[in-house]
Structures are given as C-alpha cells and as structure tokens.
TrEMBL record:
Domain DUF7041 stretches: 11-86
Pfam families assigned: DUF7041
Organism field: Octopus vulgaris
InterPro entries, A to Z: DUF7041
Domain of life: Eukaryota
Name used for this protein in its record: DUF7041 domain-containing protein
Amino acid sequence: MFMGSLPTFTGDATLWFSQLEAQFRAQSITPEQQLQILYGCMPPQLASTARDLITDPSPGATYASVKLEVEKRNTRSEESRFNELMADEELGDRTPSEFLQRLRELSEISAPPLAIPLNEGYLVRRQTED
C-alpha cells in the first residue's frame, strides 16, 4: 500500500513524475500498483489532459506508457520553445554572438533548459531575411 505523501504539482510534469517515482522506489511499489496510484492521484492539471487514459484505460496500459503520454500532452517541445524565443527576440544591433548569448540566457529561465541549435550563419541569414 502506498503510504507516501504526494508531491506538489508545480506545473512541471517531468519533475512531478520524478518525485512520485522516488517515493515508489522507496516503498518498493510494484508497476501494477504504480499505475493504479497514478490514476487515483494525478494532479487535476494533468488529469484534465489525460481524461481518456483514466476513464477508459487500455487493457495493455502500463505506468510507463501512461506517464509517457501524460508528459507528451503536458510538455512543450523544444521546437515550440525555440520558436517562442525566436518570436520575441531580434538580432537588432547586436552581434550574432551577443544574440546567441541572449537566447541562451532566456532558455535557462525556462525549465528545463532549452538546447539552442544555432550557429552564427543562421543568425546572419535571419537578419537579412527580416
């Protein structure tokens, strides 16, 4: 039986699952029990996006498969985060290196950090396209 207190959900699905799994390991909770606990204790913010998984679980559902789907539904992709950064920032009178540094700073503010796959050639092309 699960006797731990549930981690507080702060908006980061990956962090919440990591904390929950630490409790599962500490209490030697079986995979079958993990799935049932997940269905019963998922924070409302996550449960609302996983309603179909909870109300009509597939016969082959596992904790790992449900977790993966919930994280996918509740985590922005790196591409989405990158596009958001690029939409709000312009090269302006900064050098490409300064612009890249600014994007890296912004990516560290968001959680988890975003790997920015840029090179100076891309930045120069972007400046001339605008």
